[in-house]
Amino acid sequence: MTTDLNQKVYVAGHRGMVGSAIVRNLQEKGYANIVTRAHKELDLTNQAAVQSFFEQEKPDQVYLAAAKVGGIHANNSYPAEFIYDNLMVQNNVIHQAFLSGVKKLLFLGSSCIYPRLAPQPMSEDALLTGELEPTNEPYAIAKIAGIKMCESYNRQYGKSHGVDYRSVMPTNLYGPGDNYHPENSHVIPALIRRFHEAKMVNAPEVVIWGTGMPKREFLYVDDMAAASVFVMELDKAAYDAQTQPMQSHLNVGFGSDVTIAELASAIAAAVNYQGKISFDPSKPDGTPRKWMDSGRLNNLGWNPSIDLDQGLVLAYTAFCNSNN
């Protein structure tokens, strides 16, 4: 399939970790007409503002990477914001994209869409087969709605309007542009910050929430960006061959997972923290395991290129070079 590098591509959420990585990837590939808007320029929860933007810019493609995201603490503390903001952003961007004639759109979801006790590794077929993890259910519900919205527009307008809206579900992501807030961040950036600060003051011990036994899969964000552009550029027949009309999303994972205890040791090594690592089992663990089955995407020809140890060194370097 020949890709038109001059088509206008709108990346929603370009200042976020994933969105900025997608912009980097598109630029490296030679895309010459990338459109972005900062939040202060365009509030994606504002329907009228989003309508005006699409009517003015008329993009050819949309990468919907904008979302309100956070770790266990943030999801537990702000459930209303997590479901409202994400639903509003998705509804406005997807619907206005359709109204303005956008044929190709990529929606980025999350591995938390799958049931808390889904068989491991989690395949796309596990969606809506069981109860969600309570700590992030509002966020997961919003992401599931985004997938189903894309599927619904494809079903209703695919043949008549040429609509081809796709969805990718990344595993846990990390890397440059991450949120390192001490309470509202995900596990890797939170631990990078904590180990770094402990190293700076020669703290003898770092205590981590939970038992350390849950297992998680992690993907470097530039690999996720590469997968996103890969999926967007796929011929429709190839994409459809690996998906289903009522289950059209694709998992994007690394292919293996580690325990939180193993992750902590790897981060301590990347940061060069020499103290003791211990765990606080009185704090919540979250989902016991989240490991994605990325076989369908692998069958299409995509595989990750950056392993965890390499990625953690890159992520720590980015943290040190930031203003965190």
TrEMBL record:
Record bears the keyword Isomerase: yes
Q: Where's the active site on this chain? A: 139
Q: Which positions does the site annotation Important for catalytic activity cover?
A: 110, 112
Q: Does the keyword NADP apply?
A: yes
Which GO BP annotation is one of this protein's? 'de novo' GDP-L-fucose biosynthetic process
Domain NAD-dependent epimerase/dehydratase, first and last residues per copy: 9-236
Show the GO MF annotations: GDP-L-fucose synthase activity; isomerase activity; NADP+ binding
Listed under catalytic activity are: GDP-beta-L-fucose + NADP(+) = GDP-4-dehydro-alpha-D-rhamnose + NADPH + H(+)
State which pathway it belongs to: Nucleotide-sugar biosynthesis; GDP-L-fucose biosynthesis via de novo pathway; GDP-L-fucose from GDP-alpha-D-mannose: step 2/2
Q: What class of enzyme is it?
A: oxidoreductase
Q: Which residues does the record give as NADP(+) binding sites?
A: 13-19, 108-111, 143, 170-173, 186
EC number(s) recorded for this UniProt protein:
1.1.1.271
Which positions are annotated as binding substrate?
194, 209, 216, 285
Q: Which UniProt keywords apply?
A: Isomerase, Multifunctional enzyme, NADP, Oxidoreductase
Listed Pfam families: Epimerase
Q: What does this protein do?
A: Catalyzes the two-step NADP-dependent conversion of GDP-4-dehydro-6-deoxy-D-mannose to GDP-fucose, involving an epimerase and a reductase reaction.
Q: What family, per the record?
A: Belongs to the NAD(P)-dependent epimerase/dehydratase family. Fucose synthase subfamily.
The molecule here is called: GDP-L-fucose synthase
